[in-house]
Amino acid sequence: MSEKSFRPGDRVKWEHSQGTSTGKVVRKVTSPTRIQDHKVAASADNPEYIVESGKTGARAAHKPSALRKA
């Protein structure tokens, strides 16, 4: 299975409970970290991407499978 790959600055979109959001990739995370009070259980084998919402500026971590190029 090939992993989706994104680079910082890529425009992406993702689904959530209120619909679809768009934003940009800030960075790829390959080690456990925290965003605000949320634990991000990323690893080299299970990376996640920090994305910034274009509407609110809020940052969140998403798995590559949850993101699509916008």
From TrEMBL:
Residues 9-67 form the Hypervirulence associated protein TUDOR domain. Residues 1-41 are annotated as: Disordered. Residues 1-16 have a biased composition (Basic and acidic residues). This is DUF2945 domain-containing protein.
